[in-house]
Amino acid sequence: MRVKEAAQPDIGRRILRSASLTLVLLFVLGVAFTMWMEDGFIYFPARGGVGPSPGEEVDLTASDGVRIHGWYVPHPQAKVALLYLHGNAGHIEDRRSFIGDLRDLPANVLALDYRGYGKSEGRPSEDGLYRDVRAAYDWLARRHDPARIVVLGKSLGAAPACELATQVPLGGLVVQSAFTSIADMSRRVLPFFPARWFLRHKYDNLSKVPRIACPKLFIHGREDEMIPFEMAERMHAAAAEPKRAAWFDRGDHNGLIDGNGKAYFDALRRFLDDVAR
């Protein structure tokens, strides 16, 4: 009887030790998986299949030497230049029709493919996207008054747009369907694992909008299934004046324009007209 009483605590300690080691192993595997798959969760680039520009081909060199490709599509009556930064998937060919719609606002449009996308060299990264967008801005600023340059960043593209707006003079910033930060998105995707502690990418838009002085337009749909509407509300609330919002009841993340075509472009046109005054 005494032997059994002595063995029971020993068995309990072994079970506890085994469970603790299992939890540690699972945690380490979770960290490794998060770090290994991080880029794959954020970037979905497409290579090839980019046709000729509807305007001019633009070849840029980022500050670290990576060559970046874009299209410049001017309009003869434009009073503003619009730097368009697309989302995390595909390339500019997928946005050909939309780029034409932006030109018709009217605006002189520079559409950029980040490194690793379309015809651009390299692999995408947070620092890399910031460099790519700065090279595009510098190209535009040599041709247009910075007070007449507006940056439109959609989804992932809103992150380098916000970063750029903290660094250079702009006529305006359009933040469309944007997340607050990658850390906040990780909590949405992996609610039971503290992935935010191990992420290399930050893309912390929420911390930047209070420091952006130019006029800002926030666009988001209440039916967005990828980036929740409450993130847009938090961004708008945190942003410095001047600011305005265009919230839409219809349209998901990639269908916002399809569900609100005229109202969407009317809101964008009014914003650009104010910048052009």
Characterize the structure shown.
- There is one protein chain.
- The strands form two sheets. An eight-stranded mixed β-sheet has the order 2-3-6-4-7-8-9-10, with helices on both faces. A two-stranded parallel ribbon has the order 1-5.
- Helix 7 links the parallel strand 9 and strand 10.
- By secondary structure, the protein is α/β, with parallel strands linked by helices.
- The chain is globular.
- The chain has eight helices and ten strands.
- The chain has a single domain, classed as Rossmann fold (3-Layer(aba) Sandwich), CATH 3.40.50.
- 40% of the residues are buried.
- Helix 3 packs across helix 4.
State the CATH superfamily name: Alpha/Beta hydrolase fold, catalytic domain
Task: Give the strand line-up of the largest sheet.
Answer: 2-3-6-4-7-8-9-10
The level of helicity is: 40-55%
The name of the CATH topology is Rossmann fold
What top-tier CATH class fits best? Alpha Beta
The main sheet comes to: 8 strands, mixed
The global form is: globular
The residue-averaged pLDDT reads 88
Spatial extent as radius of gyration: 23 Å
Beta percentage is 15-25%
**Total helical elements:** 8
Terminal CA distance reads 93 Å
What is the number of E strands? 10
Return the structural class: alpha/beta
